[in-house]
Amino acid sequence: MLDASDSYVTEDGRTIGAVVMEMKNITLRFGGVVAIKDISFDIREGEIRAIIGPNGAGKSSMLNVISGFYNPQEGQVFYKGKQRPQMRPYQVARQGIARTFQNIALFEGMTVLDNIMTGRLHHTKANIWQQAFWKGKAEAEEVANREVVEKIIDFLEIQSIRKTPVGRLPYGLKKRVELARALAAEPSILLLDEPMAGMNVEEKEDMSRFILDVNDEFGTTIALIEHDMGVVMDLSDRVVVMDYGQKIGDGTPDEVRNNQAVIDAYLGVAHD
Amino acid sequence: MTKSSPATDGLVSIPALLQRNVELYGSKTAYREKEFGIWQTWTWSETEKEIEALGLGLLNLGVSEGDFVAIIGRNRPYFYWAMVAIQSIGAVPVPMYQDSAAEEMAHVLANCGAKYAIVDDQEQVDKVIEVQERLTGFEHMVYVDPRGLRKYDHSKLHEYSHVQDQGRAAYDELINEFKARRDKLTFDSTCVMLYTSGTTGKPKGVVLSNRNIIKSAQNACEFDALVRDDEVFAYLPMAWVGDFIFSIGQAYWSGFAVNCPESAETVASDMREIGPSYFFAPPAVFERHLTEVMIRMQDASKFKQWLFERYMAHAKKVGPAILDGDSVSAMDRLKYKLGELFIYGPLKNTLGFSRVRVGYTAGEAIGPELFDFYRSLGINLKQLYGQTEASVFITAQPNGEVRADTVGVPSPEVELRIDESGEIYYRSPGVFVEYYNNPDSTASTKDKEGWVATGDAGFIDEKSGHLRIIDRVKDVGKLADGSMFAPKYVENKLKFYPDILEAVLFGNGKDRCVAFINIDLTAVGNWAERNNIAYASYQELAGHPRVLETIQSHVEAVNASVAEDPMLSGCQIHRFLVLHKELDADDGEMTRTRKVRRAYVEEKFNDLVDGLYAGLPEIETTTEVTYEDGRKGSISATLELRDVNVVPAAPQKVAAE
Q1: Is CATH 3.20.20.105 the right assignment for the domain spanning B475-643?
Q2: What class of enzyme is it (chain B) (predicted)?
């Protein structure tokens, strides 16, 4: 068993570091409904961590706890070794946690480029007046930000739609733009909420490739929710399985695949 | 062999031209590439530094004189530098089609015994690694884009910039060797080896010397008065001889700038930003542009459509005459000027043609409508006829003598001869040295006096003195009754319809002709959308009765047109079918330059050909297809075979030959 501070090297040569985020005994309730019941797990630096489970298992709620959108009634979140106080989502984002959404949340009327530029918000120090009049830090910052954004555009191969309004793009490309915006924040942890929902096989293959490349090139830690089992098992280093708000499995894809509780949850089991 | 004098001032190699350009206009832009959303530029001086660093780095890797170095990538300055760097150290660059499957690459790499390869990215690296074991003596690979390659075994794999860094670090040790090898180059040293597209059989390596490239480039630059302020847009495959002549030969001779697009998908917008003054495209590209314009016009407001139609009609009437400098009435001139201001100018700007001074189309016949459309806008589009073996230029149309149905007069220093069978022969300073390691093929193509057989049949047009191409000699056959069978002639007429992407005519040795037709998915799909015709796949659309109706009407119109020519009236189409799949290079049905492999198609679909001749009303068939990643699958379909009306031949006039 690994210690929190241990690191190891995967079969394909990536280094997985110490625990960067730890969820301890998280319980989240909405009135009388218990969405998450006493769940604990950790995310290591540089790994791809998947959260899976049947519909309504509480996966998205879990992701929202990590991103600071929900505050759990019980339990603690540790980030980089420190217990995280109750936070607003923008404070979490400033700490280096970026996310994408299950239902694309882009500015439809803005171009791809402008959408991605919004991801640089936390790296912008110039105030609104400096920006409005293009004075002081504003120009230098914008140039620096654009450079980062262009590298991401190149990385995700979306040069040809740079100036296209997002509203005109097909679904698969919008998902890619959303990933680009999240990457523009240069996050240390990237949260992906169903990055492949509604995609065809080819789009899924592309997206998988990009997720692996992001992890590999930038060393970004990735936590993702996904329904497509094949994709999850191929991509992730470790998997948390949830069902009815509880954790029923946690481990490598192989371990999870052979876990009886997981098999029951997915294939169903006769209730007495 | 050739008697032409060396190019002036001892400029006998591409590296020597580079030296001259640095001296004469070192601070002028030589290369641009759009990267990270910005046009990055390199001057001739900077280019020389990059090339030198790479050349030294390659020396450092152990590249010897005479080694073949494969280049596999899309148009990027890095690869153009690589070609010159490789030549500078006495090795031979072999640019290859980057969309080839691994198998096709294996053939070329093995044929020339390439020891090194300079490639674009992970995709190409993977392909070369896949076939590497079968290659004897393959040593090192250099890649430009490191993405995804970090964890590969780097004992024989190097990043381009690292090779350059190592070259710079070893400057003192290697510069003398570099200069010695560079200065050893002569007019007869090999400049490049290019593989033919292989319309027949396996690709052959065409060895072109500095003489071939530099003389051809010089002549062509003088023919079209290209100067160093010209701009060319490099987007056609680097493995194709035309790109080598335009982007290396002529660019180095005239010192003009070569502009590379950001990616294959951004070609149109990048070209609009650059506005090249010298432009080349196969007819398919011009056709795509026109289709896009027309489709977008149909979505425009009624007033704009009216304006567009009215002014395009006027342009059609007087545009070509104005371009050719013929006399046009003052009123018409004024109206054309007005059109230029409001319609033609903005349209050309959208297409990226605003500054085109010299534009060429070649490779295939271009439809007269298509050709006239661009000419009428005031774009100086011309035709040329060329081959890899000729270092491109055989004939070209001079300014002011442009016609849709000819390919022009012999280029400077090109001699032309047509033998009894109608085959075209030529002799010029651009005539290739040999097919690599293939003396038999060399001997059967090029005779002792340097005459090269083109394999094309044609004749000199009496009126204009221009060359006209009929077809490939081997494809020109005879029908059972002895009349001439020239499939390309008929196919081209069919292909001029926007709905028809490809056509293949059969009939050699038979009593009548039948045809396969491929619909153009963009054009027909758009038509279907407008007419509320639902379809789920290419196959379904291709088999739709209304599509067949339309195609049938095109075929009948072509028959009527073919019947007008008494020599070829036997080539009318009696029956046809619309194929259930697009002919594709991945399936071997076409070459990478999109020419139909006729014999292969006939053999592969022999059940369909037999069905057409047997008079069956419909036929069931199953076809194997290869996907882009090399996997195979199959599709089956039931095809409708249709009869077409033929027109009785025009009364035989007195032979006008």
Answers
A1: no
A2: ligase
